[in-house]
Amino acid sequence: MSERLEIGYIPLLDAAPVIIAEEIGFAREEGLELAFHREPSWSALRDKLAFGKIDAAHMLSPVPVAMSMGLGGLASAIDALQILSVNGTVVGVSREIAARMHARGLTRDAMAAAAVGRALIDVHRQPLKVGVPFPFSMHAELLYYWLGALGLQAPQQLVVRTVPPPQMPAALEAGEIDAFCVGEPWGSIAVERGLAEIVLPGCAIWRFAPEKVLAVRRSFTDEAPGRLASLMRAVWRAGRWLADPAHHMTTAEILAQPRYLDVSAETLERGLSGRLVVSSAGEIRRIDRFLMFADGAAQFPWRSQAVWMATRLAERLGLDRSEAAEVARRTFRADLYRANLADIGADLPGASEKVEGALESITPVASSTGRLFLGPDSFFDGRIFDPSLTE
Amino acid sequence: MEPASSKLRIVVVEPDQERAHQFVDVLRSAGDFELTVIGEASALARRIAALDPDVVLIDIENPSRDSLEELTMAAGPTERAVAMFVDRSDGALTAAAVEAGISAYVVDGLRPERIKPVLDAAIARFKMVSRMRRELEATKAALAERKTIDRAKGLLMTARGIGEEEAYALLRRAAMDQGKKIAEVAGAIVTAAELLR
Fold first, then answer.
1. What is the 3-state secondary structure (H, E, C) of A156-200?
2. Which of A1, A29, A96, B98 has its CA 20 to 30 A from that of A202?
3. pTM beyond cutoff 0.80
4. pLDDT tens digits for A201-227?
5. Interchain contact A73–B (C-beta under 8 A)
6. Minimum-distance CB partner of B77 among A44, A170, A318
7. How many helices (H) and strands (E) would you count in chain A?
């Protein structure tokens, strides 16, 4: 007799780990049946998780952090058990702005975040208005980091607005926003409909940005530790399965179904393979590490990632940095990851925090198996973030 | 943080005009409020900010809801419209609101006793609307089932040269034997007949 868990998600490509955990049978092997709830908005997903209408959720990585800081309405303890996906977002602009950027000789280098950012700032009068799906999102953090480092001050010169992705094209047309940052498939859909051009992948700003997490109520982690461990193992194995390029086509076909994303499998494969069609002219860009599910300990919830998000939020909103860092640390459950996934072969890093942005290339690090390699995690401007400096 | 006028300012976000009207009627009967209805999704957060309401009510399933989260971050910590639901403390009322499918954004500093009648009325309204939705869906499903059963009966009557009652009895027996609903057996017959045509 399998145990049923209610799982909430937003119809996005990076919901794949939870959907695949059920569809390919990793959940069944653990004696679980995952029942899915496709939600209309992040706030609805968050509220339903907080009030126990669902057991676990595919969630934006900064949401548990923000909630621990008392931001965004509900004061409720939500934990990130593991990272579901790293990277996978794109920055897009209207075709008109893209044309002006090209007229100034925009580089063909897909990862040239500084050059693309300067071109965007140059062709547009300020303030630059950029749409993101949610105020507490890696999308928003990447934009503030990127355009902030290039000299734009928020909110005088940069306005980040929340626009649900299906409404982005209309918002572009109405002049509500000039650019947007979204996750797949929304970037590809906007290009497909001839409404926008993709000018930069999010991973060009930060090469290892935790995008979605598997989130649960803190009380859920204590209620039934066995059930929690089963869920973590099923989703972890799904992530490993997804990391194999041989599974892209199957994944795209499963997610394309009307009950999940209801988007063509061909469109979904672009994000999975990192081969993006960036303009209506059919121009293709091959992006290395565009969307990662498992490689380089991608699923490990580094506490330093939570601290980075918390201190960025705190600075922007005028809150205490060290206090924010402290509560945020507790939401990324590296402890549960270690306890529940060591036995099934997860490579466990020697530490639960790292200096973010220090790795330019693939680097071996201390781990339980001694065979762990971390991928590049640098920021586009070469700065590093040391989480121990927040105390 | 109390508004200059003593009337509570409430914004209702509801694209369906008829539902919005019904909503306004219910709120009117619950108290003397200053009510504004917004039906359009574009620039939602800024339009609401301009109205400077005490309370915003929106359907939990409304896809534009995320835009309102911005309101929780505006300006300084003391001025922002932070609280969703009643001053974060009344868990039971909040849970009831979520259950009923309503989201309320409440400006910080508003006393719980002032917001309670608003939410109570909203919850009652939303419960009624969702019950009506369920009833409508059930009726639609029942009608669809009836049609399928009628078609299956017709197919059986032609194929086996039997009367209507006998055809229905046949369907019912098959359903009982297989532990299925009559509509399911009928559906299988209709599908099979379409494939064999």
1. CCEEEEECCHHHHHHHHHCCCCCEEEEECCHHHHHHHCCCEEEEE
2. A96
3. yes
4. 999 999 999 999 999 999 998 888 899
5. yes
6. A318
7. 16, 15
